UniProtKB/TrEMBL annotation:
Chain ranges of the Thioesterase domain: 88-161
Protein name per the record: Thioesterase domain-containing protein
Gene3D superfamilies in the record: Hotdog Thioesterase
Listed InterPro entries: ACOT13, HotDog_dom_sf, Thioestr_dom
One Pfam family matching this protein: 4HBT
Lineage summary: Eukaryota, Viridiplantae, Streptophyta, Embryophyta, Tracheophyta
Family from the record: Belongs to the thioesterase PaaI family.
Top-level taxon of the source organism: Eukaryota
Amino acid sequence: MVFFFSPSNSNLSWRAKKIDMEKAKESLELNKEVESVSRLTIHPHRVGVEGSFYEDFAVRGIRVDRVEPGFVSCTLKVPPRLTDKSGNLAIGAVANLVDEVGATIVQVEGLSLTMNVSVDMSISFLGTAKLNDELEIVSKVLGRRGSYAGAIVVVRNKETGELIAEGRHSLFAKQGSKL
């Protein structure tokens, strides 16, 4: 609801703005879960020796089922840590799946890479996944030109076949030194 100030409806517009501001303030207030997460202590890790907080939180549970040149198929059972307040797989978690599984294609292609940078991601959110739903995540190479590669990532409910999301992910890969 948006009202603009004008002399004819000045009382109404200020009341509407106040209601909208109260709703916005309420939605931004921290809940108990967010407060407890903000108190977590995350210790630095040794790269390559032990897992990071990110690996433990965001990508734990992804099972690689099939790998071929230009193709990766994975499954993931939706865990509670990746759901939103409604019990659906959070859209940020879907974006992370597109990013991670899409980027694996560059590694599957067998290139010696020192850096992999996402250039662009486009995601269409077409359905929802609930807690404990098993998802199938498939990534395919769309093409490659030099150090630039593109992949498509499809996320679907393994049991129902419902399409949850479709993402396109383009990456720039810097090849390692030959010295």
